[in-house]
């Protein structure tokens, strides 16, 4: 009889593929690079949402948030679904889910056995799944009032060398200035601390003598907390690291280009554990004895972000990245209170106001979005050149458009309904008033597009900014 497999699920917060093993020359991530050398590094792994709660909520339920109802950032399902951890428990697993939840629902009672620092304890005697979220890299770590992660690091990260702001790479959608470089350097410093923390968790596994009987998965929730990355459906927002080590089963130091979606995590872990996979799951198994046929594409979406309304859907294959903006009359850079705490936002808004942004820096501040966007990510990884109107891409555009339509029909996208209707139907509790109060706090001189700006689909419809569906 095959010995049950232990599971270690490690999740970085607000981090992209800025790792040495992914070819980033600025990164200092020896532990994650070593983990990749011992297992498989996936190059085409994607979240279904570019922000934390919908991303995590879909990951733990195996369902797309816009199908389940938890697609709006800072919404709450009235009735919590089962998480995959409950299926693991039914199969005899001990689940220690330490740190972050943030699923846009409160999990059902008994969804985990413990919430503790498992890496400081003896391993359970029964098959286990341990989880850790690494919040050191959260967007707020780059806020000016937050000290650099290397100033007071955990013991395992002491002595790490900081990154020189002059040497970091500034992506083309951001303005190259000292404030932006400082913010990116703080991100890399935090990633180095995260890497050291991962090393501590892997050492625990070694000390317990369980390395060979445990599958280790490292992934992120979405891209780093910068404009046009976190919260947006471009490659930088949803194309993420995924490293899997499974001794004796996966060949070391290999690279896999199969498309993997975050809704695939839950069914895959249940399959590896020999647990039943609920029929309502929309993900598929990508590891083990019975993997599904590799995907031909993955899907993602963006909806309300706190007090800011939007509706965006995405289909992505190995090369082409198609985006449909259901509210094209709304700009990308709507004012969101939380995000505005970054220095980069204030700097870029002031430069935009003064007419000092140039070239790709201006894209984020356009007053309207196109209805459709199409990017060739092999040649345009930053998604800067929209090919939706290129006659040479007509067939590709039509194919991607059709594939997205098919997907949204299959999963029954609930975003065709207003948030008010989802509340009335008992799917959501009403958090709209809480976030609507923030709208009046937007400085008028920094508002691009309509003011007051809409917060729900109903608002957008009443303002003529979205079609009635």
Structure notes:
With 469 residues, this protein is α/β, with parallel strands linked by helices. The protein has helices spanning 30-37, 52-61, 65-68, 84-90, 178-207, 235-238, 265-273, 343-353, 394-411, 419-424, 432-436, 457-462; strands at residues 6-12, 40-46, 94-97, 128-134, 214-220, 239-245, 254-256, 260-261, 298-302, 312-316, 320-325, 372-376. It folds into two domains: 6-292, Alkaline Phosphatase, subunit A, CATH 3.40.720; 301-462, no CATH class. It contains twelve helices and twelve strands. Strands 1, 2, 3, 4, 5, 6, 7 and 8 form an eight-stranded mixed sheet that branches. Strands 9-10-11-12 form a four-stranded antiparallel sheet, covered by helices on one side. The radius of gyration is 22 Å and the shape is globular.
Alpha-beta classification: alpha/beta
Distance between the termini: 54 Å
Number of strands: 12
Helix content: 25-40%
Q: How would you characterize the largest beta sheet?
A: 8 strands, mixed
Look at the structure and give the mean pLDDT: 96
- Principal-axis shape equals globular
**CATH class of the largest domain, anyone?**
Alpha Beta
Strand content: 5-15%
CATH H-tier superfamily of the largest domain: Alkaline Phosphatase, subunit A
CA-atom Rg in angstroms: 22 Å
